# Entry
Amino acid sequence: MSAEQKNSNQELPIPKDLLEILVCPMGKAELRLEGDKLICTRCGPAFRIIDGIPNMLIEEAELPPGIQSIEELPCVKEGDAKL
Amino acid sequence: MPYSKQDAFRQFENWSAGYDSSVLQKLLFGPSHSRIAAELPVAEPVQLLDVGCGTGRFMELVLVEGRAAKVWGLDISKSMLTHGKQRLRRYNGSAHIVQGDAERLPFPSDYFDVVTCSNCFHHFPDQQQAVCEMFRVLRDGGRVMLIDGYRDNLWGRFIYDFCVVRVEGPVHHASARRFQELMTTAGFTDVWQEVTLGLAPFILTVGTARKRCADDLDRQRVLSTQPLSTPEAVRRAA
# Structure
């Protein structure tokens, strides 16, 4: 999380301490907040925050451009995440 | 067909509306929650993750009793969590909920003091992976507390392997022995179990994440020509 995001707690869609500990459920990489989405900083899947509840199900995440399936995520291909 | 995460997701979405008023709350869920809560010392408020938190009843219990400083809940069902959000609103800042998969926990390693899981373990398709994830997110010395239906006697098999399977599909209630195997394979030590009999019998399995032992073992593997591989060996190495 950037310093700018830390300084704007009032606008965060989820509590700051929750935001700070969540990681990508696949490769366990850090996430960055973009609007109402949490983006994996390694492979790029976007996890939506709906009604203040982050949806960390990889099956329901938006995959980054050029990635058609979970199997194609770099963390999976490099053996750092189990399917 | 084997039981899948999609089956679990669909079932809990359907059950969420009547979940809190179900007779199972009195028969099984409530007693299970009380049993786990009793294992948490009041004097040491902990960071607790409840896997399969449902509508947050156990999370509320431990906060009311002062047995956790902060409680994090994870569940696959958005509908269950929506009910949980309403329940936990008054504990703003002490309770957080996340929709997620027990086999792919979206939390960092070595973070929680306690991980609990009550009466949903039989819904996990890959139970070993779920226990390994619980081990990963626990800090060194942290404890896992699992409760699920006890099916190692005639009544238990009838309830869980016949009645529950007819309602829920091919879910899998692990035997006491299988729970021990899952725990030791994941790396847990000091594993102990306790059975509570009754109309809906349940078994509590508790294990400790001794991560320094695991580190020692890794070092010893490098140094030794005869690698240690069993949990007993891990304890001896420690």
Remarks:
- Chain A touches chain B through 23 residues (CB under 8 Å).
- The two ends of chain A are 27 Å apart (CA to CA).
